[in-house]
Write a structure and sequence with these properties.
With 228 residues, the chain is α+β, with helices and mostly antiparallel strands. The protein has helices spanning 2-37, 45-80, 83-109, 113-130, 132-147, 191-195, 218-227, and strands at residues 155-160, 164-173, 177-182, 185-190, 198-200.
Length: 228
């Protein structure tokens, strides 16, 4: 039963990769044809038709490729790590893929990338200032994803100026928070705080000394220790 599920998973993952790669190849071909033979401004009707057709094909093929490639990446990482790690990678890959697709569309349509980059830079500065903490947590989750200082289910000791020194059990790793369990209950710690903290393993508790009863031989104390 397990081998059948493993084969089904590999076959499904292979289909995702195949669909994504084929769609990406079609999108790249549309980009090349649109750049070479298409033109929107000051051109003939045939050149405009080629440019718009290439842009439409690029949009749909690119979106299809992003969907299946990111799904394959996320599922592969989920199987090796955790659901939250796969979801984080899929979200980041989708964002990067969408950004690349957007610039490719502008290139086919003949939009000036220089003005576009200036506008995107200003918008990025404003967005970065407004959402500095949230973006910091998202980038911290990516670093934690690849650095892997801990995994879900690990017992760790956190040393931080924000939370102090605490021993916790990692219950989940999300896009913005790490969920841990302490002696006092559940706690959500921002990823940026976890990234800036010292992470270690808690020391095992020292074994309780076994007192030898008065008049007992040393062998009887050892026997008592083995019974405990």
């Amino acid at each position: 039963m397990v081998s059948k599920n493993a084969r089904a998973y590999k076959l499904s993952l292979k289909r995702e990769w195949t669909k994504g790669i084929v769609a990406a190849a079609i999108a790249i071909a549309a980009l090349g044809l649109g750049k070479a033979f298409g033109k929107i401004t000051n051109s003939s009707s045939n050149a405009k038709l080629i440019a718009w057709t290439a842009a439409v094909v690029l949009l749909f093929a690119g979106a299809y490729a992003i969907r299946h490639l990111t799904r394959a990446l996320g599922r592969g990482l989920t199987r090796r790590r955790s659901i939250s790690a796969g979801a984080t990678l899929r979200l980041v890959a989708s964002g990067l893929g969408s950004l690349i697709l957007l610039f490719a569309l502008f290139a086919v349509l003949g939009v000036s990338l220089q003005h576009l980059l200036i506008g995107a830079g200003l918008a990025g500065v404003i967005l970065g200032i407004a959402a500095q903490q949230s973006l910091g947590n998202i980038f911290a989750s990516v670093v934690l994803l690849f650095a892997r200082p801990f995994s879900v289910g690990d017992d760790i000791r956190i040393r931080s100026g924000v939370v102090g020194v605490i021993d916790v059990k990692v219950m989940g790793i999300g896009l913005t928070y790490v969920t841990v369990r302490t002696d006092e209950g559940m706690l959500k710690i921002p990823n940026s705080v976890m990234l800036g903290s010292a992470i270690g393993r808690p020391h095992p508790p020292d074994p309780k000394p076994v007192e030898t009863p008065p008049g007992a031989a040393p062998a009887s104390a050892e026997e008592k220790l083995r019974q405990q």
